[in-house]
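Sequence in, structure out. First:
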Amino acid sequence: MNDFITPKNHKAFKAQVLSSHIDDEVKDCAIAYIDPRGGGPDPDHTHPHDHLFTVIAGEIEIRMDGDAFAVTEGMSLRVPGEKRHSVWNTGLTTAKVMGISLRKE
């Protein structure tokens, strides 16, 4: 995991961008390994692009505008960038999550 980083305001969270500036709709694609009780950012944040999170292994909780959404292995959830959000591992094992950043039209 030499090319992995821990983004600002995240904990027990390692991510690596797999590809960026893919096309007019897809900004980038990354893979993240989030340890139990890890996640972020803290506090929740917003930005101009959406995320599409897919859980490859484990389980996460996506906090969005005061609500919490459980996303388990094989599930995906699109998070509008203008909603305050963060991602947390609520499971007992490391979660493996694919994140795709989608530009707004």
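Second:
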Amino acid sequence: MQDPTPTLAALPPGALSGVTVLDLSRVLAGPWCTQTLADLGANVIKVERPDSGDDTRAWGPPYLKTPGGEDSSEAAYFLGANRNKRSITVDIAHPEGQALIRRLVLQADVLVENFKVGDLARYGLDAQALLALKPGLVVCSITGFGQTGPYRDRAGYDYAIQGMGGLMSVTGERDDLPGGGPQKVGVAVADLFTGLYSTVAILAALRHRDLTGQGQVIDMALLDTQVAMLANLGSNYLCTGKAPGRMGNAHANIVPYQVFESSDGHLILAVGNDKQFAKFCEIAGHPEWATDPRFLRNADRVHHRAELVPLIAEVLRRQPRQHWLGQLEAAKVPCGAINNLDEVFADPQVQARGMTVPMAHPLSDRLQVVANPIKLSATPVQYRRPPPLLGQHTEELLSEAGLSPAEVQALRDQGVIG
């Protein structure tokens, strides 16, 4: 199928138009960072291994469906983190491949990589060597544990980082209840947060570069990010010396503030103050709860959680979810549905906000991507290119770098490019 990439010259410039990013990362944290930069208008060149490419190209099923309904070669995982990029295949273990990366660096503003600590130095492509080649370059290195410290040589994976960084100690049901024990979050939040923090760091470094001409090295670690994103729980521990435990879907300091079951599904009740509790009691048909000394104030409700929560659960179980949500929302009592993904993408608010985008793909006309949530008034996010096929833009990018067709063919004959 012909490449359906639209004519890009007609598109208005994005916020990061003119910024070129050389992306040597793979899997999720790095590609999430570079996809965000690409969505904002940066020219992102994704460097992949010949033959196999980014690991996530093979992380399926599910795969993108062809027009005939068959599985294509493109894993949904890869498609979720690599739009608006161009793919070039380069074997950096080959001296000619290393020379090619240096040539691309001369045209780049940013390089993002997530190799193990010291790996790129074996190829003469470490941060210091690249900064010597181009002093204005911003190099962002993303690893599990950072460039320093006793764990620097370890491989880092999101699941392990969620455990090591404390998140799983506060996620999941209490140990004394059925199903109790540590739980990971359902998506790779350590990877995703690290990708976003990396984006912020790159933008700050580009601002510094624009002011001074000086590039720099950004050292991002999944473990650092996971510790930072403990947020108020980390602050609570540092102030008290007491480690918080798992509360399941309940809240340590507010009652009722948890998941309850209705007659046809679950809902969230998130009462934030005593006035909201009184309104809830009216809706529940038990106004006397609001004047009961055990439940009068939030502190009382926290102390008598074991008595109040079963009473609420018994009432909410009697009616369907929408019965309660409609009344609670009308009374401005905080609440919410627990939607599966069918319901999420069918939700009128999600649709009104344009949170899915169709994109023409070389292998399918069925591609839908989750939209970028950033809404900019003057330089909106653009969906210029579908996630690339492996090496799809190799010849195009090498031509832009000044190589002749004969030089490109010579590199292909040597196995330097795919």
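Remark: The longest strand covers residues 43-48.
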